[in-house]
Known about the structure:
Transmembrane segments: 42-66, 75-92, 144-169, 181-198
Helix content: over 70%
Strand content: under 5%
Subcellular location: Cell membrane
Order of helices and strands: HHHHHHHH
Membrane topology: Multi-pass membrane protein
Number of strands: 0
Pfam families: LysE
Number of helices: 8
Protein name: Lysine transporter LysE
Oligomer: single chain
Amino acid sequence: MDTLAALGPAALFMISMTITPGPNNMMLTASGANYGYRRTLPHLLGIMGGCFVLFTAVALGLGLVFERFPMVQTALRVVGSLYLLYLAWGIATAPPPSFGDTEGRPLSFWQAAAFQFANPKAWVMGLTLMASFLPEGGNTVINALLLAGVSELIAFPCISLWAGFGMAIGRWLKGPRAWRAFNGTMGALTAGCVVFILG
């Protein structure tokens, strides 16, 4: 019963965290514009899968590593920031899409899932979610799986909006110059997330 009571507030928390800008949503917007929603879907599902595993692991004790070894958190921020800059460069320098070929590739399921472990916003979400809404009573594993699972179901339409937003933008972009400007802007915004990560 405690778990069910926590799901409502947890859902509101997840909506506020996943519908707002962040590294994942910037990349989904760029991917939606360049590749369309269908080809972006593995990226989107990878975010959900990675966060599900991360959130569950946090609930089962991985979060204690940060408390006992603060340098781990610092290292994670640095590694996450460097990887994010690498992804941002890829977005910024991507050529205009050619919808007749498949040379350009969005992030795969596994790439997107792995990125969550280097994504400080995902860690903040997981730590806050489990610290605030995981019931103290009952089976911890079941409660963690249920809370993480429902959280990702809530997240799906929120992050889908960003991919859909990118797809809508892509329909309005005409010519290589407009595409280069868009990709450059999205790359810069993605790189800009590093300021908040290291700040």
